[in-house]
Structure prediction request, 261 residues.
Amino acid sequence: MALATQHPGLRWLPYSLAGAAIFLAVWSLLPQAGIVPSALLPSPMAVGKTFFELTQEPFAGYTIQQHLLSSFIRFASGFGLAAAIGVPLGLLMGWYRWLDRAVAPIFETIRFIAPIAWLPFAVLWFGTGIGGPILIIFSGAFPACLINAYRGARLTQGFLIEAAETLGAKPRHIITEVVMPSALPSIVAGLRIGAGVGWQSLIGAELIVVSSGVGYLMVQGQGNLATEKVMAGMVAIGCVGVLIDVALRAAERHFRRFEQA
Prediction:
């Protein structure tokens, strides 16, 4: 009882484990029963064995760890650029109405363009260099970073701003010392959303415009009719995506506790 009180999430752990067990059981049954050919849907054991082999033996030029590192470097570059531009711009748009009016029409048009739609330009402008994936990731992560920073700035409680103005604070100090701390939970929530979209966008880019990375590994596996390698790549993508989301969720909880305090 005390353990469940300290860790409320543990009460749902049996359901999570049961769901995972059912999923793996159905997955294993489909190829074993011949419902789906094993060449098209390898069993979990076959995928796990292939994943382990990929950590030891290079495929498509690199081990799976090296492919993941290459993918993560691209992701960190594109996502970092999106956050570095989107968050400050969103805060400034939330504070300066003239900047909001100037940027909003362009932003509202561009943000509805799917990241994958930038692939032709990524190929034309950057070839197989790192610039192409960065462009795709940036286009996926940037809107969420900007929008949530903007909303956080607009939702800053008015009495805090009035108190700072009464004390003689200048606009730049109000933005950095009042608006930004107040908007932090919203900013972190936007980073979490942007990271998810950016990671998905990266894999789409790697299917076409790179010569390394997990997406590239999957394309090469498909070309060699190695379905188990394709699925091992999918497992790697999912695991890294979960780790990124867990880290950002922890940051989000931290800032929400900070806000409530």
Summary: The chain has a mean pLDDT of 86. Residues 1-41 form one domain.
